[in-house]
Design goal:
Largest sheet: 6 strands, mixed
Strand content: 25-35%
Structural class: alpha/beta
Order of helices and strands: EEEHEEHEHHHEHEHEE
Oligomer: single chain
Number of strands: 10
Protein name: Cell division ATP-binding protein FtsE
Shape: globular
Helix content: 25-40%
Radius of gyration: 17 Å
Strand order of the largest sheet: 6-7-8-3-9-10
Bound molecules: adenosine-5'-triphosphate
Subunit structure: Homodimer. Forms a membrane-associated complex with FtsX.
Function: Part of the ABC transporter FtsEX involved in cellular division.
Pfam families: ABC_tran
Membrane topology: Peripheral membrane protein
Length: about 230
């Protein structure tokens, strides 16, 4: 569960990226975050995975008070949150298997379990047969599937996806969405920032619209609502 109460985020240069956001996202929800460029969507997500800390307000993720988190608790909170980016962010010199396994190595999982679980998630995203390939040998859609495998390998309760289909063609985007829906169906909460109006309007879910650092709309089974 994610709960924001009057969250402000002001960057060091004085930019108010969020100006009093209050929102509650329950376990197992699937939420689209929409809004114009610069509205504060990425900031909203960075606060959830604690890449940034709120300037003011209360933020709790899975029962942890993110603003007041002790440094030694940060890895524990992060391992319960999977992050997916528009540009995949795979390590270019590591194979598909190694990219995914790496996320388990950092939490010091036993080798045998790493091998089993990594192959299991590669199977889930349909890329078991490409485990020995390098990212550059894969298509964009395949690279995004590897990044999804990496995000889910530690079984996080929350998945944060920042424009996961931004670099993909419509057909590949739909395949990625099917995968995210499957992951949601298996029990993870998903928060996805997107500019993709076709996806939002066809796969209806809760829509939270942010403009100028404020939530301006929050609808169950909402629409994209912007022209571009
Ligand atoms: N590290 C930073 N330092 C200063 N200002 C920042 C920083 N990161 C973001 N901003 C500013 O905060 C505001 C919100 O940015 P954010 O990236 O959250 O928007 P966004 O809705 O994700 O935009 P986009 O759709 O273009 O990705 C913008 O004005 C942006 O320029």
């Amino acid at each position: 569960m994610i709960e924001m109460q009057d969250i402000w985020k002001t960057y060091v240069d004085g930019t108010h990226a969020l100006r009093g956001v209050s929102v509650r996202i329950d376990r197992n929800e699937f939420v689209y975050l929409v809004g114009p460029s610069g509205a504060g969507k990425s900031t909203f997500m960075k606060l959830i995975y604690r890449e940034e800390v709120p300037t003011k307000g209360q933020l709790s993720v899975n029962g942890f008070n993110i603003g007041k988190l002790k440094p030694r608790k940060i890895p524990f909170v992060r391992r319960n949150i999977g992050v997916i980016f528009q540009d995949f962010r795979l390590l270019p010199k590591l194979t598909v298997f190694e990219n995914v396994a790496f996320a388990m190595e950092v939490i010091e999982a036993p080798k045998r379990i790493i091998k089993k679980r990594t192959m299991e998630v590669l199977d889930l995203v349909g890329l078991k047969h490409k485990h020995a390939s390098l990212p550059a040998q894969l298509s964009g859609g395949e690279q995004q599937r590897v990044s999804i495998a990496r995000a889910i390998v530690n079984n996080p309760s929350v998945i944060v996806a920042d424009e996961p289909t931004g670099n993909l063609d419509p057909e590949t985007s739909m395949e990625i969405m099917a995968l995210l829906e499957e992951i949601n169906f298996r029990g993870s909460t998903i928060v996805m920032a997107t500019h993709n109006r076709d996806i939002v309007n066809s796969l209806r879910k809760r829509v939270i619209a942010i403009e100028n650092g404020l939530v301006v709309r929050d609808e169950a089974r909402g629409e994209y609502g912007y022209e571009i």
